[in-house]
Amino acid sequence: MRDVFLFLAGFLACSVEMVEALTIVLAVGVTRGWRSTIVGVGVATLALAVVIAALGPALTAIPIDALRAVVGGLLLIFGLQWLRKAILRAGGAKARHDEERIYNEEVVAARAARSEVHAGLDWYSFTVAFKGVFLEGLEVAFIVVTFGSNQHNVGLAALSAVSALVVVLAVGLVVHAPLSRVPENTMKFAVGAMLTTFGIFWGGEGAGVAWPGNDAAIPAVLAFVVGLALALVVVVRRQHASVAGGAGGAGGAGPPRAVAR
Amino acid sequence: MRGFLRFWYDFIVGDDWTIALGVVLALGVTALLVHGGMTSVWWLLPLAVAIGLSWSVLRAAKQRP
Asked: Is residue B5 one of the residues assigned to a domain?
């Protein structure tokens, strides 16, 4: 049971971040050329590998209960932040993360930037690609390493990340431009719910709590978190509709279909 | 240095610092109760999440009509 959740959480978290990174890389690559962009992606990937290699052994040296409490707390904070944004977006109180708009903005910025070529590299392309891949990847690396160490299954966590990378790259090759077809808010909603669930479960275990049914409590916690989040989407949509003067709340009282974009 | 600290603050704490504070408090209270002999306080973290997330979301929704 835990392995399935571990794989799904890692896969979804990695997918979301990869979509964001790929949007930036595609915009720069298409606009300014691929050579320097790909070098930037490669260097960022190597830097990420170094971070993962340094973090992994350090985490496994910490006593398991302390690790679970710390990791559970961090996952809970991450998960709640993701879930909060996804709820606000689905409820209409926050602008959706628009990959098409981001892509167009990156294209305009890339075209406007001066070309600085040193050592055969266009440093604008290199820097933007490096930053995009490294920063988005860092969050995924952190989640994968903490998930993997906590479950003593870094291999499965890494496999979930690699699977997501393959899927997102395949989608990126097919759509080859804005990744707006990928339902990012839905994925963020799902990832937020899973991170929050693991955060509650591991945080509780780390603090010494005895969960009823042990691992069997995980689906129940997940159902609780999803139910709470969907209820909040409905409340936010109603609140948003009434504040916007939406003709007696029309359109705000239905099921949270906005989650599914 | 300032940018480095800012990056880690944004990375870990995010948009709403009260969520991070609430999580630390909820875990701390849970650990204290468990070490005081109450190992069946499994409901405390889900309850804290429900209260904290609802408060944060509804507050943010009011600020962005």
From this structure: no
Measure in Å the smallest separation between the Cα of A174 and chain B Cα atoms: 31
Nearest residue in chain B measured CA to CA from A221: B46
In a domain, B38, yes or no: yes
Could you tell me how far CA A258 lies from the centroid of its own chain?
19
Residues in CB range of A68: below 8 A, 6 or more apart = A150, A202, A203, A205, A206
Helix or strand (DSSP H, E) at A118: strand A117-118
DSSP state of A95: -
**pLDDT tens for each residue of A8-65:** 877 887 787 787 788 778 877 777 778 888 898 899 888 888 877 776 666 666 676 7
pLDDT at B47: 96
Residue type (1 letter), A200: I
pLDDT digits (tens, 9 = 90+) for B29-64: 999 999 998 888 999 999 999 999 999 999 998 876
Cβ-in-10-Å burial (0-12, 13-18, 19+) of A166 comes to exposed
Residues of chain B whose beta carbon is less than 8 angstroms from a beta carbon of chain A are 11-16, 19-20, 23-24, 27, 30-31, 34-35, 39-42, 44-46, 49-50, 52-54, 56-58, 60-62, 64-65
Q: How many domains does chain B have?
A: 1
Amino acid at the residue A178:
P
**Residue B25 sits in which domain range?**
15-63
* Residues contacting residue A113 through CB under 8 Å, at least 6 positions apart: A32, A124
To the nearest 10 degrees (0 to 180), the angle between helices A35-60 and A123-150 is: 20
pLDDT at residue A117, rounded to an integer: 63
**Tally of CB atoms within 10 A around A214:** 11
Judge whether B26 lies within some domain.
Answer: yes
Q: What ipTM describes this predicted complex?
A: 0.90
d(CA B24, CA B43): 16
Q: Which chain A residues are Cβ-neighbours of B53 within 8 angstroms?
A: 80, 83-84, 87, 228-229, 232
Note whether residue B55 is domain-resident.
yes
